[in-house]
Specification:
This protein is an alpha+beta fold and 179 residues long. The protein contains 5 helices and 7 strands, in the order ββββαβαααβαβ. The radius of gyration is 16 Å and the shape is globular.
Length: 179
Amino acid sequence: MSRAVERVVVTAPARANLIGNPSDLYGGAVLGCAVPCRARVELRAAERLEVATGDDTFVIATRDDLRMQGDRFDVARAALAAQPELLHVQIAYASEIPFGSGLAGSTALLVALLRALAAWRGETPSLYELAERSRHTERDLMGVACGWVDHYLCAFGGLRYVRSEEHTSELQSRRISSY
């Protein structure tokens, strides 16, 4: 396949909850904000599908390679499992977000991965679609119990009020408010 774009670079911010955490998981609302630490993803054309972070590289040959392993590649495995087909691309990622800090580092990485993969396929999902894809991927493919605030803050950035109502087109525009 001939591609017009040979490289995609995307970042997503960490987030801090100011009030209401973790009520978005239980039907409540959270006021949160993006913080100036980012997860960064770069995609480049390649002969095979591989994921690299730090000094580690993981080659993905079949969909069986996308099963969760409990390692530093699980976020990439989940993002790739959500794709319609395996791509020939090198994915490199890094993060300024301290591991285990409670600043939604894995969600920021997932949002950046999903946005980069969409751009690679020529898609431009809305920020709402991106946040919902991220939440679906983390909840349903990674098995993580999660609310909405992490996904919406990592997709939208800024200072946001997020309510935990189920996604419908009617509620989509009301779920998030910016300040």
